[in-house]
Amino acid sequence: xxxxxxxxxxxxxxxxxxxxxxxxxxxxxxxxxxxxxxxxxxxxxxxxxxxxxxxxxxxxxxxxxxxxxxxxxxxxxxxxxxxxxxxxxxxxxxxxxxxxxxxxxxxxxxxxxxxxxxxxxxxxxxxxxxxxxxxxxxxxxxxxxxxxxxxxxxxxxxxxxxxxxxxxxxxxxxxxxxxxxxxxxxxxxxxxxxxxxxxxxxxxxxxxxxxxxxxxxxxxxxxxxxxxxxxxxxxxxx
Length: 238
Description:
Distance between the termini: 31 Å
Number of strands: 0
Number of domains: 2
Order of helices and strands: HHHHHHHH
Number of helices: 8
Shape: globular
Helix content: over 70%
């Protein structure tokens, strides 16, 4: 892949997910803001463009397994994967993280008042993101599967509602989640336990960090691969 200052960060990661580590290290958002050019992203985070380009090219030059090539997957398979892996992960982790957050807020809240805001943001996030995932499972993903079948069968059996319009709503909601977790990361000093933090405190921050990392991949797969291809497929059927 020829990476330049004008290449979109989401496209870079879509081509090779190993690049995500370079962006994460410099706090460059490749999922919700995947349409940003590399030059713009570096300016936004005040990191040297040439240094990021060098790191990306170093990764590209490594003769290692690039991991799963999600971009080559059929759209219905990718939708199934996101639902079964990432949606189920979110549902399971909500049940794990919520009581841990409540516990450390009760024990450490006096000395760390920021935990109250972290808990509020997390509960706000999981409430809205749970509804978001249901909309995908009940409307967006079935519409994508229907278009894939229509294309394969050579029929004109298209979804009644515009898929592109539904996706526009999903993208906006992704932005909201990205901003919430960006704030949670800032409030926790990027998930760094304080010196007086107990083991439960450390475990809670570790789980939140893992949750955010999974969220980044989850949103990346939709924003930068599944949704753009679904819009292209809908245009071809029309």
